Amino acid sequence: MTAASTFPYEGHVPVLRLGGVLLVTLQGDLYDSTAEQLRQDIGETASDSAVTGVVIDLSGVEIVDSFMGRVLSDVAAMTRLLAAQTVVAGMRPAVAITLVELGLTLPGLRTALSTEDAMRQLGDEGSVLPRAGRPHRERP
Amino acid sequence: MPEQQAAEHQSNPAEEVGAFLRERREQIAQRWADAALLRTVFTVSRDEAVEAARTVVEALAAVAASGRVADSEADGFAVVREQLARTAQSRARAGAGIAQISAEMDALRPPVTDLLLDELSDAPAEHLRECTTALTVLMGTLRLVMLETTMNAGQDLINRQRLELLEIATPVIKLWEGIVAVPLIGTLDSARSQVVMEILLDAVVEQHARFAILDITGVPTVDSLVAQHLMKTVAAARLMGAECIVSGIRPAIAQTIVHLGIDLSSVLTRASLADALAYALQEQGDHIVPNPASAVEPR
Predict the structure, then answer these.
(1) Closest by Cβ to B240, choosing from A101, A113, A140
(2) Which of B22, B104, B183, B233 lies 20 to 30 A from B39 at CA?
């Protein structure tokens, strides 16, 4: 995973801002350098524009490794520090099985079936609007 | 062809048998087509039987020419493996056992031996003996290849059926819009729980289900391995954005789990499938209102 220059994104994954939510759509294989760059981009955008939620769409990702799993949980922990919720959306079964087999159950991470669900989850808590100050209700 | 014959007498017996087989392949094929093995398989057309026999003879000739008469892995046999398997399968379907197929296969040898004896009637006795031995070994190897192929075909069938059984035994039921359930029946081993996990996760994507219920009422025993599989499935479902509920834990099983010290606290559990469904519906915001006119008592 070193030939980052041959990758169409040239080491960049677009980070889109929709209201108070950042939308990141990952496609295809992700190189370590790209993932590293993405972690920085999300951090900077989140702190610059005071977002309340980050949605990472993994529906186009077929292969993950342990590094990717770590990047995901890092992003979640980082955005939490910046007062934003991270929701991972649309993970494929094969990817989920791989992560579980790798022992990465990503406990702190919130998940959703699709991007739409993720937006709804964030919306339900009023975090797309200015923060209502309501704490996130943990499921039993 | 006096020079050629002379040259053949110089070469080793296996090569000579190869040359003999190639030369007389039509004659041998005709005789084999009348043998019980091929006659019972190719009942419709004799030409087909002759064609099949010719292929086998050519393969034998190729093997003999390469000098590996005793090697069942010889390249020459690769061509006829499939055909032999079909022949054997067809005989097996007709009720012939391995021993009978083997005996029928052995019956192919005498016609060839007779032909060889005719061919070499004026050769020295020592040479004749060597050639006959080579031919016998070659036919023995053919028989071995045939039986090997038959056994492998049987094993393939068993494997395929086992796989089918795995899939049949784990249906995914759509209980409600956005709620799927898998009733698990029978012992869970690693292979089976892997299949269950894949089927369940695929169903979550397909049905866009926010809730997946694993009902283990039909699982006779739960040990730490099964519990681990359950937890893996639950974790994978959660990663995909679905919530997984385990239902149908019987009191005895609950006791075992506690005795074993398995920590299922990360798994949401309910006593019965109905309870799990009620929980999922409530979480979804769907309310089921019992019909007051119905005789069934509301829960």
Answers:
(1) A113
(2) B22
